[in-house]
Design a protein that fits this description.
Helices cover 6% and strands 43% of the residues. By secondary structure, it is mainly beta.
């Protein structure tokens, strides 16, 4: 098994983790509160970074009805004003995955809004 590079290890606690094989480091349970206002997510929430194996929970709120779709994981949720809607997944696939607004009544499947609401980056552990 791969080990964490020694150059990244300093301090007693880090030395303990660095001695462990990288595959034994536990995945994180991560929750992100994402607010959509006027069809946009605040700039500081437009890129979410997680690691492979993490359990991810996106808690969506909005000022108008919207359908959000996480590409690559093929998860779609309808978000209504006044209540939080959760989108959960385990980050198995690595890469950069957009979350886009979908038009629920589009002919021929679905259509997208103008740009991604945010992107989720899943980095290898």
């Amino acid at each position: 098994m791969a080990r964490i590079p020694a150059a990244l290890c300093s301090g007693a606690l880090l030395m303990l983790f660095c001695a462990m094989p990288a595959g034994l480091i536990a995945a994180a349970d991560l929750t992100f509160d994402v607010r959509i206002e006027q069809g946009r997510v605040p700039q500081n929430m437009r890129r979410i970074r997680v690691e492979q194996g993490d359990a991810v929970r996106l808690r969506w709120t909005t000022d108008r009805p919207i359908v959000v779709h996480l590409h690559g994981y093929d998860i779609q949720k309808t978000v209504e004003p006044g209540k939080a809607t959760e989108m959960t997944f385990t980050a198995h696939a690595t890469g950069r995955f957009p979350v886009e607004e979908h038009e629920p009544n589009a002919r021929g499947g679905h259509s997208h809004g103008e740009a991604a609401l945010l992107r989720i980056e899943v980095h290898p552990r």
